[in-house]
Amino acid sequence: MPRGVALAWGVAANPQRGPKRELSIERIVDAAVEIADAEGLGAVSMSRVAASLGFTTMSLYRYVTSKDDLILLMQEGAVLPPVPDESIERGWRDGVTAWVLAMRAAYREHPWLVDIPVSGAPITPNSLLIVDWFLREVRSLPFSDGEKMSTLLLLTSYARATGAQERDIGAAAAAAADPADVTGANYFEALAELVTPERFPYLSPLLAAGGYVAEPGTDFEETDDDFSFGLERILDGIEYHVGRVESGAAAVAAEPLPPSLELPRDKQVREAAKARREAEKALREAQKREREAIKHALEREKNALEREKVALERERNARGKAERAK
Prior knowledge:
CATH architecture of the largest domain: Orthogonal Bundle
Number of domains: 3
CATH class of the largest domain: Mainly Alpha
Low-confidence stretches: none
Distance between the termini: 113 Å
Structural class: mainly alpha
Oligomer: single chain
Helix content: 55-70%
Mean pLDDT: 85
Number of strands: 0
Shape: elongated
CATH superfamily of the largest domain: Tetracycline Repressor, domain 2
Order of helices and strands: HHHHHHHHHHHHH
Number of helices: 13
Radius of gyration: 32 Å
Strand content: under 5%
């Protein structure tokens, strides 16, 4: 068993030398988590953690032998789930929803969790408690063991992906001089000009209605609508599969495509892609020429106005001289 996993289970041998009374694995992990929460996972190093505790780096190595082990223990400490009492009675859908929300809360509290690569099945105690909790919530479903684990993977991936997206957008908003740069409101007018019905027939009306990028001045209120919508649709799919299993319905077999819908050969695909690129290039060039023509027309109009202004000034001066000569 890897030492990091053994440490998580509490079955690794404790160090025989070093500042045992002042330092512990728990203190080391807590300090590392505190650094990651404040500055991200990249800021965590053995030397940084040691310095924050007032010890040398070698002191830490007597307890945690590598940074990989430290990160594993950080993950283990950060995902301790608030497993509800088993006496609570509720349907599988409510139970799974509570489970996903708990996973999301962990990613919100410790955003750096999404930066830890998934390297295999969880084998540490807190991670297995999460798996056990999920299996409790879906115990009534008529799924095979493999289907239950596939469902867990699906929902874990959803919570992790939305956690990463939320973290990244939040970081961008915090770094931006104007939050409207992140929401896209500052680019509404430019996009409204560029996203034309001819080129984007389905996106254009949605953009014009404010469904893609909010119009300038629109109050932005962060909600969980997108997250809730996605979760509910996933649960709808699970519920649909439950119904099919309970009814004994066989899996829907894929029907062969009719001849008119058969996928084109590779050469045809390449030719179609090339033709599309050439058409888009021609459109861009035409739009560029149109913009240049408008620019030149405006410049000519401006120059004409300047010449007219000069001519009027000369005429006014000539009249003034004529008046004075009288």
